[in-house]
Amino acid sequence: MIEELYCGTRGRFAFASIGAALLFLVAGCGSSNDGAATGGAGGSGGAASGGKGGSSATAGMEGDTVCTSDASPGDTVAVPAGSFMMGCNADVDDACSDDEKPQHEVNLADFSIDVTEVTQDQYAACYAAGACTAPSCPWDCSQGSLPATCVAWDQAKSFCAWAGKRLPTEAEWEKAARGTDSLKYPWGNDDADCTRTNMAGCGDAIIPVGSLPDGASPYGALDMAGNVVEMVADYYDASYYADSPTDNPTGPETGTRLGGRGGGYKSETLWQRASKRDWYDTSDEGSALGFRCAQ
Fold this sequence. Notes:
- The structure is a single chain.
- The chain is built from 4 helices and 12 strands; from the N terminus they run βββαβββββαααββββ.
- Strand 1 (about 1-10) and strand 2 (about 10-20) form a beta hairpin.
- It is α+β, with helices and mostly antiparallel strands.
- The chain has one domain: paralog of FGE (formylglycine-generating enzyme) (Alpha-Beta Complex).
- It has a 4-stranded antiparallel sheet, with helices on one face. It has a 4-stranded mixed sheet with strand order 11-10-9-12. Strands 5-8 form a two-stranded antiparallel ribbon.
- The two termini are about 30 Å apart.
- The model is unreliable at about 1-40 and about 40-65 (pLDDT under 50).
């Protein structure tokens, strides 16, 4: 069986070649510019957090493109068991939002998390295996090291399951991003700049994963600030921290919005902070919304 991702000027088709038979599944192509945001921080995803607005990595793609890949899931870094302070650290951060308060102690079991955001090549391999469905916007197949975008929450979960992993909880994501010293950013408390994070004013486009090693977290995870906003496993609740369990919190049991973390390539400095929380509708699939997996 050969399965490929096909996106032409008239739309997207997933097709499988089985002997002489071809099976086509229509899954309409998105624009290379998603326009105004519909999710993220109360609708500010495009302008502020880098959610559904802005140019995608495939702007200007012409003709018919077939994307195939046999890429393996990404490497991980280990995060040891133990406690950390979750939420905004007012001692080093003067931009604390209400939903980042109160700062509170959280105890997590050991886990591992992807070194980088999931790439388009890796997602295409999942698609080829029949475990993932097509993204909603076209990808440039020569740019497979770009983050996988234009996929919704359920699609991200499907990829992580195929890879033998899962989406990280919001608490796991934050600990992996800032360590146990309540850092303002993954790299420390120094101001954000374009050598550490791909944010607004740093090129206005997503870049290959792992391009900015100076922005590494204390555990060696890359791109945890900027490039694309990362979906987490938790439903979003602005007041969750007031009642959050101390041990291995997993977020509210139900909800209509998912949590997003880390800011995107259109995000201002505010959104690059490790404690900053964002939200999206569970069906959102923006051109600057991606993910990484944990296990």
